[in-house]
Amino acid sequence: MPQTMTAVRKVKPEKGLVVEDIPIPVIGPDDVLVQVEAAGICGTDLHIWNWDRWSSRRVKPPLTLGHEFAGTVVEVGGRVSTVSVGDYVSAESHITCGMCYQCRTGQAHMCPNTVIIGVDREGGFAEYVVVPEKVIWRNDRDKIPPEIACLQEPFGNAVFSTMNQDITGQSVGILGCGPIGLFSIGIAKASGASSVLASDINQFRLDLATKMGAQQVFNPTKFSGDGDGGIVDAMVSANGGFGIDIILEMSGAPAAINTAFKAVRNGGVVVLFGIPSKPVEIDVAENMIFKNLTVHSLNGRRIFDTWYKTRWLLSEGLVDLRPLITKKIKLEEINESMPLLEDGQVCKLVVIPEHKSAPQASERAVSKTPDPNIKGTVVHR
Q1: Residues 6+ positions from 274 with CB-CB distance below 8 Å
Q2: Cut 0.90: pTM above it
Q3: Per-residue pLDDT tens for 306-360?
Q4: d(CA 54, CA 118)
Q5: Catalytic residue among 47, 67, 94, 380
Q6: Does 44 qualify as catalytic in the annotation?
């Protein structure tokens, strides 16, 4: 049987990734070994591929990337009690400490000591990945196939941000139709939104927004400013002349953030989920205080509360993510596929590893101590 596996790695502090054979990882007593069947490429992976300012400060090469994955458990550690060989699973990518104030008060998604799979420790762009038992999530293969199961991690971000407020019977505006924004359109529709309006500067994404259920879509570059005839006027007009009840800002673009505060109705809700690349100027008095707005700034997803909602939405067919999977690729095709993601020519790329064969636990030593983790500031979406 093989002792090595194919993996996608950041091996040097420079742009690009390397596909190479490395030893199949050894599990610790509290770990499980998952044979990866599908893995989604995220914007975080694009940042690491580009080796931008954030990734160069956070990531320590060599590292296997990938934090969105699904597969089958092929080996478990000696202290593992809730996961068995053969289980079909995904994993929460945020490994929290369990001991800080946030973890002890039901806010583990805010844990300052979070270690992220594929960012701070070895990830799932490989034939196999080792993860702690405590972050494993069981899937139903009959209801959620691997290419959808691997998307539960990012889909959970959209579930958390969209369902953080009462959507039923409300008009919803979604600014930014990247994967999280597109997920949110489907969630808003499934949650009973009276109408969903979507905005983006990319026509490919606007077409997907329509497929996901948006009644009207807008390209802000087609409008002149925010006043008469501008994007704000257009969205309010499309909402019957009234400000929008709830606006989810998913892009982080300064112009979109300002549009959110101007287009929302007095007493409405603005959810800030997109991450700006620089500070944003907002007229707090006119567009927040005098409008009596409720503003939520959110990150990540609730561990594991959001996962239960995610499973329900997907397993019951309330949200269909298949239109958002643009292409399935091999591990060896990641480098050439990243520019497509960067240019907005695709939505979700799903990696399907080709496996040599399953490792045999009897032939492999089990580590007595888990691999050390690198801790850092939480910025992953």
Answers
A1: 175, 176, 249, 250, 251, 252, 253, 256, 257
A2: yes
A3: 999 999 999 999 999 999 999 999 999 999 999 999 999 899 999 999 987 666 5
A4: 15
A5: 47
A6: yes
Q: Domains in the chain, please, with CATH?
A: 4-151+321-363 (3.90.180.10), 157-297 (3.40.50.720)
Q: Which of 353, 301, 345 is nearest to 110 (CA)?
A: 301
Question: Among residues 178, 173, 64, which one has the least CA distance to residue 120?
Answer: 64
Active site residue 67: no
Residue 181 phi/psi, 5-degree rounding, is -65, -40
The DSSP output letter for 361 is: G
Q: What is the dihedral of CA 119, 121, 124, 130, to 10 degrees?
A: -160
Residue 346, C-beta contacts closer than 8 angstroms, at least 6 positions apart? 326, 327, 337, 340
Burial class (CB in 10 A: 0-12, 13-18, 19+), 247: buried
The token pair that represents 95 in the structure block: 């490994």
Catalytic residue chosen out of the listed positions 4, 6, 44, 296: 44
